[in-house]
């Protein structure tokens, strides 16, 4: 970096040129007031120029690290007042910071990060507490040695040789003994500029170029410069040598460019040439060979040729400024007066979405006809594809294209699509809102759907076929209920438009209810009471629909009289259908004994509930004869009897009837449950548990104490095999390692260990051997007697092969070891030439698994004739 300090003495502010300075390519900003930034500093981009005409303060609140004053690449910042900063300054590549006042800070809070191509210029003083800010100048310009600050220098902004900034000279009054004048001047080609030391009375002088090399012969206080560059003079007074400030001599030039900015143009239109270049320069030019001149006021001027009929050519000859006079050789431009530009559509309809018209498979479409313009004249606008506005467009996407042409044949097209969508739903023609009546399907409380009989409406559409479907909630029904059901239908066309409506389906219950069993006679024991008929007769009424009821005539029977009473029972359903049956109720002396559960054989220790079915309340006493039984309530109509030992038992219910005892008898057989009857099942396999893949294997279950009808369930790896519930299980889809077992439930009562799970059988399933042949054809010559087949791979443990020849004259080969990648085919050497078929199999001698048959053939060729050349 360059840190260049300019002393504390009075200074002249920047010259008029300096005040207008800015970095080229960026934006310029000027702030005219005392300015303070805290924490967040405004963006200052690359090549920008910032001029602050007062003091700038940059603060940090100690909790924010963002108070960094950054001057980006190639940018310039000029501060006419002081810079008071408490954090950090960053200067990127080529950046320049000019401080006309003082640089002040608190040393512990200030750091500077300055690129080696950047520079900080300070005219005022620097706070003494800025630790580490050095005045060293490692740039190419080192007017002084050491790290001391040299105040009072007159510094040009080009001193750091960073001319790209475009910043002009900075004039500062200082030590006149170091002064030169002028510090900046312009030099045109072929001219000279004189620069002088301010001190004209020194003992001797030596002018040097920017690198310090002495210029021969230039030892006067004045120096006539003929080449652009930077120069300084060594001023010698006695034994002292003073190095002057530098003077900048810049090369000056003038330029001009021209362009026809509106060509080509149509014949008869105006032609404009734009001439730009050095401001206020005089430019000499030729227009179509006729010489003329103009002044570039403000750096640009337009030359107008009105109503041009031919091509216009403008050529620049020379340019004159205050300091330079330059020839402009070969700079010319031409504007063609012709029409090569296509006309342009000013308006073109966008793609249109149109709904179809009612009762029409299409739509009348109106659109704005496109308009166009041309740099000359529009000749025509023509419809070249599609339909005109107002025409009827068909359904679908129709491309409409217009073409515009000008008088010289230049053309352009405008295209858009018209999409006509079918929005009109179909129309039902017949069947809708009709009521269709059906009798119920026999045995059903409704009508079972017969697809051929279900009412179906018809519909039409103007554009496509129509699909009619049922849509109401009954779409999944298989039976329509009694009564009236609305059936929704939808008619849909191919465009997805639909309409819905209803047909009413009435189902009439015409089926009579039925009485399940009409008894021929009912017997009862006499008792002094009147009882409802249905308390004696459990008659069930059946109907195809729920809600059927029954009644009888008479409705009650007097049980105090032994008699035969005729009864008629009538069944009713909800639709008013009836059925009836007639029977007799006989009052007599008999009622059976009932048990729960209803068994005649039980196990030792079983308890059975006994009931004497005497609904009119006669007294009873229970008597049991047999090995050992316990009666819970001997004098009750209902009692529990426990059978404690095996054997045959007689159970009697004793009642008082007409003053004479009567007994109603039941029987029970009891089986011993001492655990000696044990259920067991075992399984076996055929042909073996070790089989080849896909071999059918049969498993058989052998029961012990299974009864006459044991239940089975086969399992693979402990998982139930659905449907395998017989004593035999057959499968050809078992895997290696599968474990087979069977569970049996005995049909015997009083048997232990039921259900029982069998032993297990583990399957060893071996892979089927296979072989990969390079070819299934072996070739040999007559009388050689053998041939061979080559194989590239074997699998499944194949280690032997066998060959079965179709021709019985050739002996078969059995169980020959596979080796060497070749199979030898041996057959009689006198076999005639020809092709002989055979089948090849390979097997695994360990597992016994055999491959499928491979079809092979042996081709015997005739020997060549004597003298015949046999190719390799």
What does this structure look like?
The longest helix is centred in the first third of the chain and has 4 residues, at 16-19. A hairpin with a 2-residue loop joins strand 19 and strand 20. By secondary structure, the protein is an all-beta fold. The model is unreliable at 1-24, 132-174 and 656-663 (pLDDT under 50).
Topology record:
Elements: E1 2-5, H1 16-19, E2 28-31, E3 35-38, E4 49-52, E5 56-59, E6 68-71, E7 76-79, E8 83-85, E9 88-91, E10 96-99, E11 103-104, E12 111-114, E13 119-122, E14 180-181, E15 184-187, E16 193-197, E17 204-209, E18 222-225, E19 229-237, E20 240-243, E21 247-251, E22 256-260, E23 271-277, E24 282-287, E25 290-295, E26 300-305, E27 312-320, E28 325-335, E29 344-347, E30 352-355, E31 362-364, E32 371-373, E33 378-385, E34 392-394, E35 396-406, E36 411-421, E37 427-430, E38 435-439, E39 446-448, E40 458-460, E41 466-470, E42 479-481, E43 483-493, E44 498-508, E45 514-515, E46 521-524, E47 530-532, H2 533-536, E48 541-542, E49 549-553, E50 556-558, E51 564-572, E52 578-587, E53 593-596, E54 601-603, E55 607-612, E56 620-625, E57 629-631, E58 638-643, E59 647-657, E60 660-671, E61 680-686, E62 690-692, E63 697-704, E64 711-716, E65 719-720, E66 728-731, E67 739-745, E68 756-757, E69 761-762, E70 764-766, E71 770-773, E72 777-781, E73 786-795, E74 800-805, E75 813-817, E76 822-826, E77 834-843, E78 854-861
Parallel strand pairs: 1-13, 2-4, 3-5, 4-7, 5-8, 6-9, 7-10, 8-11, 9-12, 10-13, 15-21, 30-36, 38-44, 46-52, 54-60, 62-70, 72-78
Antiparallel strand pairs: 14-16, 16-18, 17-19, 19-20, 19-21, 22-23, 23-26, 24-25, 24-27, 27-28, 29-32, 31-34, 33-35, 35-36, 37-40, 39-42, 41-43, 43-44, 45-48, 47-50, 49-51, 51-52, 53-55, 55-58, 56-59, 57-58, 59-60, 61-63, 63-66, 64-65, 64-67, 67-68, 67-69, 71-73, 73-76, 74-75, 74-77, 77-78
């Amino acid at each position: 970096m360059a840190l260049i300090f300019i002393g504390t003495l009075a200074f002249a502010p920047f010259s008029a040129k300096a005040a207008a300075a800015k970095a080229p390519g960026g934006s310029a900003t000027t702030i005219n007031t005392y300015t303070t930034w805290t924490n967040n500093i405004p963006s200052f981009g690359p090549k920008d120029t910032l001029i602050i005409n007062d003091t700038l303060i940059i603060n940090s609140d100690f909790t924010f690290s963002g108070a960094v004053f950054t001057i980006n690449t190639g940018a310039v910042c000029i501060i006419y007042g002081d810079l008071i900063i408490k954090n950090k300054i960053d200067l990127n590549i080529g950046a320049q910071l000019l401080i006309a006042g003082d640089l002040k800070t608190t040393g512990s809070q200030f750091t500077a990060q300055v690129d080696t191509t950047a520079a900080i210029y300070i005219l005022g003083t620097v706070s003494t507490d800025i630790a580490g800010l050095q005045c060293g100048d490692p740039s190419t310009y080192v007017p002084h040695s050491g790290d001391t600050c040299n105040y009072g220098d007159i510094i040009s902004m080009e001193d750091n040789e960073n001319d790209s900034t475009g910043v002009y000279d900075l004039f500062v009054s200082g030590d006149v003994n170091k002064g030169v004048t002028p510090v900046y001047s312009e030099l045109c080609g072929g001219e000279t500029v004189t620069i002088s030391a301010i001190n004209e009375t020194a003992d001797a002088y030596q002018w040097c170029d920017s690198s310090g090399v002495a210029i021969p012969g230039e030892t006067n206080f004045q120096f006539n410069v003929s080449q652009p560059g930077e120069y300084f003079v060594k001023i010698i007074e006695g034994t002292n040598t003073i190095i002057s400030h530098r003077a900048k001599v810049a090369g000056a030039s003038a330029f001009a460019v021209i362009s026809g900015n509106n060509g080509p143009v149509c014949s008869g239109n105006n032609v404009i040439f734009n001439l730009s270049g050095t401001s206020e320069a005089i430019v000499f030019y030729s227009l179509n060979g006729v010489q003329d001149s103009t002044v570039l006021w403000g750096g640009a001027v337009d030359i107008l040729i009105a109503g041009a009929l031919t091509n216009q050519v403008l050529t620049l000859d020379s340019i004159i400024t205050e300091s330079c006079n330059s020839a402009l050789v070969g700079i010319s431009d031409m504007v063609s007066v012709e029409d090569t530009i296509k006309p342009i559509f000013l308006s073109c309809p966008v793609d249109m979405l149109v709904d179809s018209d009612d009762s029409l498979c299409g739509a009348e479409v109106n659109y704005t006809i496109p308009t166009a313009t041309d740099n000359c004249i529009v000749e025509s606008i023509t419809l070249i594809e599609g339909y005109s506005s107002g025409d009827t467009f068909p359904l679908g996407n129709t491309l409409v294209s217009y073409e515009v042409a000008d008088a010289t044949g230049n053309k352009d097209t405008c295209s858009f699509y018209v999409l006509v969508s079918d929005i009109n739903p179909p129309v039902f023609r017949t069947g809708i809102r009709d009521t269709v009546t059906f009798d119920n399907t026999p045995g059903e409380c409704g009508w079972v759907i017969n697809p051929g009989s279900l009412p179906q409406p018809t519909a039409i559409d103007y554009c496509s076929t129509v699909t009619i479907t049922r849509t109401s909630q009954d779409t999944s029904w298989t039976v329509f209920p009694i009564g009236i059901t609305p059936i929704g239908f939808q008619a849909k066309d191919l465009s997805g438009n639909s309409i819905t409506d209803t047909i009413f389906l009435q189902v009439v219950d015409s089926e009579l209810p039925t009485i399940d069993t009409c008894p021929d006679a009912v017997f009862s024991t006499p008792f002094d009471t009147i009882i409802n008929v249905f308390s004696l007769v459990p008659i069930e009424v059946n109907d195809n629909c729920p809600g059927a009821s029954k009644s009888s005539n008479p409705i009650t029977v007097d049980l105090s009289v032994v008699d035969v009473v005729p009864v008629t029972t009538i069944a009713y359903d909800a639709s008013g259908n009836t059925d009836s049956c007639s029977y007799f109720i006989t009052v007599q002396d008999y009622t059976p004994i009932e048990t729960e559960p209803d068994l005649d054989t039980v196990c030792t220790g079983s308890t059975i509930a006994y009931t004497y079915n005497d609904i009119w309340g006669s007294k009873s006493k229970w008597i049991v004869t047999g090995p050992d039984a316990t009666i819970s309530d001997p004098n009750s109509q209902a009692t529990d009897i426990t059978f404690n030992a095996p054997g045959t038992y007689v159970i009697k219910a004793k009642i008082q009837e007409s003053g004479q005892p009567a007994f109603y008898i039941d029987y029970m057989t009891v089986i011993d449950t001492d655990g000696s009857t044990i259920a067991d099942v075992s399984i076996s396999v055929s042909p073996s548990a070790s089989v080849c893949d896909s071999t059918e294997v049969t498993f058989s279950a052998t029961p012990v104490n299974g009864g006459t009808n044991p239940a089975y369930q086969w399992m693979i790896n402990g998982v139930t095999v659905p449907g395998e519930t017989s004593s035999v299980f057959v499968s050809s889809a078992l895997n290696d390692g599968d474990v087979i077992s069977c569970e049996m439930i005995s049909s015997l009562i009083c048997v232990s260990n039921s259900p029982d799970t069998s032993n297990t059988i583990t399957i060893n399933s071996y892979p089927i051997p296979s072989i990969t042949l390079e070819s299934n054809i072996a070739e040999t010559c007559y009388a050689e007697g053998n041939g061979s087949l080559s194989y590239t791979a074997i699998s499944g443990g194949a280690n032997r092969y066998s060959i079965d020849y179709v021709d019985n004259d050739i002996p078969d080969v059995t169980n020959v070891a596979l080796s060497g990648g070749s199979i030898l085919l041996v057959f009689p050497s006198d076999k005639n030439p020809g092709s002989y078929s055979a089948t090849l199999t390979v097997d695994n001698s360990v597992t016994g698994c055999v491959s499928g048959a491979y079809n092979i053939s042996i081709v015997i060729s005739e020997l060549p004739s004597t003298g015949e050349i046999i190719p390799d």
